[in-house]
Amino acid sequence: MQISVGDTIPSATFVRMGAEGPEQIALKDITTGKKVIIFGLPGAYTGTCSTKHVPSYIENMGMLKEKGVAEVICVSVNDPFVMDAWGKDTGAAEAGIHMLGDPEGTFTKEIGMSFNAPPAGLINRSLRYAMVLHDNVVTTFNLEGGPGECSVSAAPALFDQL
Questions:
Q1: d(Cα 98, Cα 39) in Å, to the nearest integer?
Q2: 3-state secondary structure the chain
Q3: Among this protein's residues, is 49 annotated catalytic?
Q4: Rounded mean pLDDT, 119-143
Q5: pLDDT digits (tens, 9 = 90+) for 76-122
Q6: Catalytic residue of the set 3, 17, 44, 49
């Protein structure tokens, strides 16, 4: 079932690169007691994800912080090695965006955002979305209408919803 406004975010554990290699991190360790944005996308290094979605958050981190956002989290069905490299290559890591891997797509499936596009080689990937959480409760949920679209899930679309 698709997550929606008013729902509490499910418990989830992601994988990221730590000082000594891959490490697990509980989502609630980053989100509890805070205003947080989570945005999900089909995959690291893919077209729209790299040219529009992630850059929209990098370019607008200052404004998001001014609006009270404590953390910005990018979730993709990728391993932590890829997410780490992509975060460095795009500047997302330097901007302070948490680049979290959901390697098995567990979280993505649980919130109803999983999709398959075999012709593009995308299996069990994430639809493109953005959500705002206040202390783990979804207050805004924006889902893109189709492949390659990046408008309602981009950072500027959230400004009036914060």
A1: 10
A2: CCCCCCCECCCCEEEEEECCEEEEEEHHHHHCCCEEEEEEECCCCCHHHHHHHHHHHHHCHHHHHHCCCCEEEEEECCCHHHHHHHHHHHCHHHHCCEEEECCCCHHHHHCCCEEEEHHHCEEEEECCEEEEEECCEEEEEEECCCCCCCCCCCHHHHHHHC
A3: yes
A4: 93
A5: 999 999 999 999 999 999 999 999 999 999 999 999 999 888 788 77
A6: 49
